[in-house]
Amino acid sequence: MSSDVASPPETALKKTPLYPLHAELGARFCSFAGWELPIYYSSILREHEAVRTKAGLFDVSHLGHLEVSGPEAAAQLQLLVTQDMVSLEPGRAIYTPMLNSRGWIMDEMIFYRLEPGRFRPVVNAANGDKILAWLKARLRGGAGVEDLREKVGTLALQGPNAAEILKALSSITLDHLPRYHAAAGTVAGKSVWVGRTGYTGEDGCELFAAVEDLPDLWKTLLKTGEPFGIQPVGLGARDTLRLEAGLPLGGADLDEKTTPLEAGLDWTIEWKKGPFMGRDALERQRREGITRRLAGFEMKAPGIPRPGCAIFQGENKVGQVTSGTMLAQNRAVGMGYVPPQAARPGTRICIEIHHRKVDAEIVKLPFYRRKR
């Protein structure tokens, strides 16, 4: 039976300012967190390898830029995240979860302290509205938050040749910018903040610029990087690179039913700093012990683990895969939550793939560590 009531139209996917340039490069697109993003240009494996051996350029301007500023910005952020924001010096960056009162991860992000009273959190695309509302509700008179998501975007230049490409276009050099530091300057004549950060486990930087400057920066970086083997890289290789580097993904490995202790993010909790949102819940969990922990595993027989696949220890189902992929040389790896006793490296497990149990082994993360 037909209806004369029209169905509501599907919400249109948002496009980054670089969408036409991606299309010109022959990108294949996918939907992610309400955005239409390039998943690959040539192939995921080829782009993954380019970042590991030469250089890759990512459009990650779907990430959300917010700005918290004011004379009390540091003191008030100190109460809302797990890391020590008061001691964070200007020009430094820090990775931190933001928790609710139950100690569950609302989002994890990098905070850049650009100036003494000016912080720039870069949040996951799916969580921008939520984190903006959370901050507005909790920041008091000496601090405020501004939404920069329509004004500022991000390009990520990653790989062993990233430093040489940047040096050709900017007075800012990675030789003088330590890991997790940031500096203002120009790249290809455009005003940017350069952060020596990334989500690949490889060397490189992230460039924060006005959205109107992103197309010129993208084209110039690709042109300048040609002699250095640069490749445009899509969301597919970004995911395999971060998984290979043992970096958790919000919405997959991290969610609002997970604590930092369960996710192996104990190192992000600054217990000495005093009270913060979720601290009481974390202290209780630390006393009582966790019942599950995020662990990495490697397949020991043919099969590709995918999110949702069951994890078995013997005949007992003990967890499920949250991230998994096939890397180069037929190396299949993944992550998932298992009981703490099953999270020890060397523990034999099975992953259920297409209704059959395939042998795997818990291994120490990360799967890849860059030689320094």
Summarize the structure.
By secondary structure, the protein is α+β, with helices and mostly antiparallel strands.
What does the model show?
The protein is α+β, with helices and mostly antiparallel strands and 372 residues long. The chain folds into two domains: 12-289, 2-Layer Sandwich (Gyrase A, domain 2), CATH 3.30.1360.120; 291-372, Aminomethyltransferase beta-barrel domains (Elongation Factor Tu (Ef-tu), domain 3, Beta Barrel), CATH 2.40.30. 19% of the residues lie in helices and 34% in strands. It contains eight helices and 20 strands. It has helices spanning 19-24, 44-53, 73-77, 128-138, 162-167, 214-225, 235-244, 279-288; strands at residues 14-15, 28-32, 35-40, 55-59, 64-69, 92-99, 105-115, 118-123, 144-147, 152-158, 182-187, 190-195, 204-210, 230-233, 293-299, 310-313, 316-326, 332-338, 348-353, 356-363. The radius of gyration is 21 Å and the shape is globular. 46% of the residues are buried.
